[in-house]
UniProtKB/TrEMBL annotation:
Xref: Gene3D superfamilies: q2cbj1_9rhob like domain
Name of the protein in its database record: Phytanoyl-CoA dioxygenase family protein
Highest rank taxon of the organism: Bacteria
Keywords: Dioxygenase, Oxidoreductase
Species, as recorded: Paenibacillus rhizovicinus
Keyword Oxidoreductase listed: yes
Length: 269
């Protein structure tokens, strides 16, 4: 049995606010294992198709080119795949979805000092889960606060429609998409300690600001999940879902152009 089960209050917060933080879902040894796994990737220098960092000269001062995100690490790293399907995470997601979850994708972000943020956006614009939505499990591998570019969220926007984004300010965001805020919206910080896991709805507006610290990374391991009743998903992930036992599940590709009415290239988190 999973050791951490969301309380009724936590489940109610997710239902009302569109997000909840499970404090210390992972212990220090587990966080250290994840951190060491990705530190080894950096040490080895390059994994074609997954991690292709630039030299300082090639990056011309852009930290995120020297420490690019890793997409789908569960496909190449046993540790990433194991934590993507961790029993505590699966138990929490089962409670939040009200049904069996399926893991759709994984990512690892380094966000070094000086790294730009990510403009406000909604995840299900990219995953295109239908019916329903996706849920993110965002695990802090370092303490994350507003100095080093921790996440911010807009409560209650999980009830909002998925927007067609406009272009973000490239001085603040490396991510090109940005959505509008509803009237009277309040942006709240999601400050976290290493080992905390933030769960949020695929419609919840969220993002981050630049890492303005002098020497603090903001590493995070992020996975997205959908419910087992999902029938269609974005073309990039529809045929590579993972059930809790590790078996592969396939659903139909969502051929919709989404709220913009046109196809797009996948740009998650």
């Amino acid at each position: 049995m999973a050791a951490h089960i969301l309380t009724e209050a936590e489940k109610e917060q997710f239902a009302e606010e569109g997000y909840v933080i499970a404090r210390q879902l992972f212990g220090s040894e587990q966080v250290a294992e994840i951190r060491a796994c990705f530190a080894k990737v950096v040490e080895e220098g390059r994994v074609p198709g997954y991690f292709e960092p630039k030299t300082a000269e090639e990056a011309q001062g852009e930290p995120l080119l020297m420490y690019p995100r890793i997409l789908y690490p569960h496909r190449i790293l046993d540790t990433a795949r194991r934590y993507m399907l961790d029993a505590q995470v699966i138990a929490a997601l089962t409670a939040l979805f009200g049904e069996e979850p399926l893991a759709a994708q994984s990512m690892f972000y380094f966000k070094p000092p000086g790294g730009r943020g990510q403009a406000l956006h909604q995840d299900n614009y990219y995953l295109q889960a239908d019916p329903g939505t996706c849920i993110a499990a965002w695990t802090a591998i370092d303490d994350a606060d507003q100095e080093n570019g921790g996440l911010v969220l807009v409560p209650k926007t999980h009830r909002s429609a998925i927007q067609c984004p406009h272009e973000a300010d490239p001085a603040l965001s490396y991510f090109r998409d940005e959505v509008d805020l509803p009237e009277d919206a309040v942006i709240v910080p999601a400050d976290m300690k290493a080992g905390d896991v933030l769960f949020f709805n695929g419609s919840t507006i969220h993002g981050s600001y630049p890492n303005r610290s002098a020497d603090r990374f903001r590493r995070s391991f992020i996975c997205h999940y959908v419910g087992v009743s999902t029938l269609r998903l974005g073309h990039h992930i529809h045929d590579d879902l993972h059930a809790a036992d590790g078996s592969i599940v396939k659903v139909a590709s969502n051929e919709s152009g989404g709220p913009c009415g046109t196809a797009y290239e996948f740009e998650p988190h």
